[in-house]
């Protein structure tokens, strides 16, 4: 069975090489954006042989896809505060800190911009967010079990509703993306969930 470049999870020295290359790719994305990415430059930054990078990933798109896979797997686990609002607030603060980080913020902007025109990057980005939403969805499932929200609440829709206004500020309005904005996003999602807004579609 053939395997796409960058899709095998290695161990030992290969793992260290992968980590160094992905870190260098993230730095380059944050500094210059997707359009300026160059495998040779990334190899130089990572102090890795150019042939190794070309053989393992083949293209910039494959490398960015692997970077997103690694980011999804390394992300912080969900909170369990005992209340829906507490959990959603923790999620909102995590998103806010990530998007305002001097490296992570520009990195996400570059990847989102690339995903608009590159199908492989778009697919990898969707996988990244699906992974994160699946990680946090049990917060809503637990809230259903506690009776905080209606039984037919869609956990995934609630989690999406938390981060959506934060990304809107990052990508569209440029307004301050502070903890107060995160708190409002969490409060709005929790209030809407309790009101039954995010019921499952039965179509």
TrEMBL record:
Residues 15-75 form the HTH tetR-type domain. SUPFAM superfamilies: Homeodomain-like, Tetracyclin repressor-like, C-terminal domain. Residues 38-57 bind DNA. Keywords: DNA-binding, Transcription, Transcription regulation. The keyword Transcription regulation applies. InterPro entries: Homeodomain-like_sf, HTH-type_TetR-like_transc_reg, HTH_TetR, Tet_transcr_reg_TetR-rel_C_sf, TetR_C. GO terms for molecular function: DNA-binding transcription factor activity; transcription cis-regulatory region binding. This is TetR family transcriptional regulator. It comes from Asanoa ferruginea. The lineage of its organism: Bacteria, Bacillati, Actinomycetota, Actinomycetes, Micromonosporales.
